[in-house]
Amino acid sequence: MIGRKYNAILISLYSGQHGRRRSVARKTKENQAENAVQDAKQDRYTSIKVRLHPTEEQAALFEKTFGCCRYLWNQMLSDEQEFYAATGQHFIPTPAKYKKGAPFLKEVDSQALVSVHQQIQRAFKNFFEKPETYGYPQFKSKKNAKDTFQTYCHHYDTSPDSVYLTEDAIRLPKAGLVKATLYRKPLHWWRLQYVIVTRSKSGKYFCSMIYKYPVTPPKQKPVTEENAVGLNYSMSHFYMDSNGSFANPPEWMKQADRKLAEMKRKLSRMQKGSKNYEEQLRKIQLQYERISNQRKDFIHKESRRITNAYDTVCVGSYNLVKMSQTMKLANVYDSGFGLFRETLRYKLEREGKRYVAVESSYPSAKTCHVCGSVNDALTLKQRVWTCPHCGASLDRAENAAINIKKQGLGQTTL
Predict the structure, then answer these.
(1) Model-level pTM?
(2) What is the DSSP letter of 146?
(3) How far apart, in whole angstroms, are the C-alpha atoms of residue 320 and residue 313?
(4) Is residue 211 within 8 Å of residue 224, measured between CB atoms?
(5) Which of 324, 346, 322, 350 is nearest to 335 (CA)?
(6) Best CA proximity match to 320, nearest among 352, 288, 293, 360
(7) SS3 label, residue 217
(8) DSSP string, 253-278
(9) Domain range summary for the chain, segments of one domain joined by +
(10) Is 53 a residue whose pLDDT tops 60?
């Protein structure tokens, strides 16, 4: 009897230990699966831009921070040049070494000064790695430099973060709660990294909040000729695609340009420095800002439409700087085609679609898409031309877009 009870106890203990082992093994597998999912995710950054309405004291603090950041940048750049001339090595002092000689630097947010040190280091790094793309860092002047500063968000366990949002304001270091117009709010799993405070030429204050959050990389969409399109830059139509369609900027953008020209003519008839001159100058600055916002709105909507419609987009990577120098009478920069390419690229990549950049050296406009022959005698003034080999009648912009699509698909694996 005792032996039976003893065996039963052993069986129960063994089964309990075996059950605990199975539960531990199951939890281990679940943790491994969860870690695998976390490893498969990647960090994505997004920004939310809000309009700030600071008080007079807060606005004065912002202006002081702008000036301190500009002063610190110039001092660091000057000291770096002197140190390199004397030793042949690169060295940029930290902001703390400048506060003794410039006590006013202690009155602003220290994180804004730290960001200046990191920005100038990044500027030199980019210049050394890609001098053909990034130029040598330049000094900033009060007239031409953009009024902006950047500050980081520190997260604490027992106290609020250094930067955070409320219902109608944003808390910034040194400035406290600054009233803001919030157009949208972040999701609860987004983590704030840093903010950038800027002042536009019209005197408005904005704050761009940069968030980081994990996402699962999307599956890469297959490359098919049916769901691909080629885009060619066009001065008259913004762009022409390989299907023969074009995207004209809205009429209200043209109306805004005409209004700006009229306002400039009115300004030219006023006495410089007078009250009316300053008021008219502010109206012109507001009109410039309005045109910029209209252009960005058009670019984002058009890039979103293309992203939703196609899985592969082939775009000619034209050098807009050289184009602006060649086409003296054309406003290449005003079209915003460079911003359009960048917004199109990141929107396609976020959905697992392909953005294919075709080299500008490829003669897309001079190549006949029917027979493949190259017409070297083609000039810029010829918008419609006939192929001397096959006799096909070709529209210059549409033919270039079709060739860009063919070349882009050739760079990918069908």
Answers:
(1) 0.77
(2) -
(3) 19
(4) no
(5) 324
(6) 360
(7) coil
(8) HHHHHHHHHHHHHHHHTSPTTSHHHH
(9) 46-215, 228-411
(10) yes
- Indicate if the pLDDT at residue 14 is higher than 50: no
Instruction: Kindly report the three-state secondary structure assignment for every residue of 309-367.
Output: HCCEEEEEECCHHHHHHHCCCCCHHHHCHHHHHHHHHHHHHHCCCEEEEEECCCCCCCE
In Å, how far from its chain's centre is CA 249? Answer: 22
Task: Report the pLDDT value the prediction gives residue 81, as an integer from 0 to 100.
Answer: 92
Predicted confidence at residue 34, as pLDDT, reads: 47
**Residue 10: pLDDT over 60:** no
Q: What pLDDT does residue 194 have?
A: 94
pLDDT digits (tens, 9 = 90+) for 84-121: 999 888 888 899 999 988 999 999 999 999 999 999 99
What distance in Å separates the CA atoms of residue 216 and residue 346, rounded to the nearest whole number?
Answer: 16
Q: Which helix (H) or strand (E) holds 287?
A: helix 275-309
At residue 174, what are phi and psi to the nearest 5 degrees? Answer: 75, -35
Query: What DSSP string runs through 39-84?
Result: HH-EEEEEEEEEEEE--HHHHHHHHHHHHHHHHHHHHHHHHHHHHH
Pick from 35, 38, 40, 42: nearest CA to 349 = 42
201 — pLDDT class (breaks 50, 70, 90): confident
How is residue 372 written in tokens?
């493949």
Output phi, psi for 312, to 5 deg: -135, 125
Taking the CB of residue 62, how many other CB atoms lie within 10 A of it?
Answer: 24
Structure tokens at 111: 């994180």
**Poorest-pLDDT segment among 80-89, 161-170, 275-284, 316-325:** 316-325
Give whole-number Cα distances, 379 to 75, 365, 384, 396, in Å. Answer: 50, 10, 11, 10
Nearest partner of 279 among 291, 266, 290, judged by Cα:
266
Question: pLDDT of 367-383, one tens digit each?
Answer: 888 888 888 888 877 88
pLDDT digits (tens, 9 = 90+) for 242-259: 888 888 877 888 888 889
Amino acid letter for position 53: H
